[in-house]
C-alpha cells in the first residue's frame, strides 16, 4: 500500500458511487418503502421495508462470503459460521485493533435523511423492491469508500510514524485531523466527481461523434445533478472518511 495506490482505489470508487446514484435517481422517492409504520407481510414491523431488505440481503451476502474481505463492512453485523464461497486466504494491511473502525451508522442516516430526498423525484410508483435494491448498492458503495479511510490512515501512519505516534499518545484528535488533511487533494476529488456526474449522467444519442455533448450541458439534462454529487463529497463523503481515519489512528497503538 502507498498513498498513490489507496488514492487510486478511492478514484475508482467514485465511478461506482456516481453510477449507483444514477441508478437510484431513476426511481421516484417511493416513501412507503422507508416508513417504519408501513404494513407489509400482513403486519407492521419495527423496521421499514428498506431496512428489512438490507438486513435480509446482507444475511445472504454474508453467507456468500462478502464480509470475508475487510474492505466490506455490513450495516447489520451478525455471525456466519461458514460461507458458501470458494475459500480464499484474505490477508489485510490493517492493524488488528483498528481494523473494524467504521461509520456505517452515520452513513445510514446521512443517506436516508439527507441525500435521498435530493436524489430522487417525488412520487410513488410502487416499485419498492427495485428501489430499495438500488439503495442497498448506494449504501454499500458509500460504506466501502468511506470506511476505506482505515487503509488511507494506515498508509499515512506508516509514512510518518513519529509525528502520528505523538499525537495518538496525546489523543489529540484535532491535530490528527490537521495532519492527515490535504485540502488540495480534497479539491481535486470534489471537482473530479462533479465532472464524472456530468460525463456518466449524460443522455447518449447517435448524433455526432462519441464524446459530443448531446445534452447542451444544461443541469436539468443530467441524470443526477452534478452539484449534488459535489455536495455529497464536500459535506459527507470526505468528512466521514476523515472521521474514519482519525478513529483508526486513535486505535493504531492499542
Ligand atoms: O487522499 C487522502 O490523502 C485522503 O486522506 C482521502 C481524502 C478523501 O476523503 O478524499 C480525505 C482527507 C484528505 O484531506 C484528502 C482526501
Automatic annotation (TrEMBL):
GO CC aspect terms: cytoplasm
Reaction catalysed by this enzyme: chorismate = prephenate
Question: Which EC class, in a word?
Answer: isomerase
Q: What is its EC number?
A: 5.4.99.5
Q: Which GO terms describe its molecular function?
A: chorismate mutase activity
Matches recorded under PROSITE patterns:
CHORISMATE_MUT_3
| Top-level division of the source organism's lineage | Eukaryota
Keywords (alphabetical) are: Isomerase, Signal
Tell me the InterPro entries matching this sequence. Answer: Chorismate_II_sf (IPR036263), Chorismate_mutase_AroQ_euk (IPR008238), CM_AroQ_sf_eucaryotic (IPR037039)
Q: Please provide the Gene Ontology terms (biological process) for this protein.
A: aromatic amino acid family biosynthetic process; chorismate metabolic process
Spell out the NCBIfam families in the cross-references: CM_pl-yst (TIGR01802)
What is the name of the protein in this document?
Answer: chorismate mutase
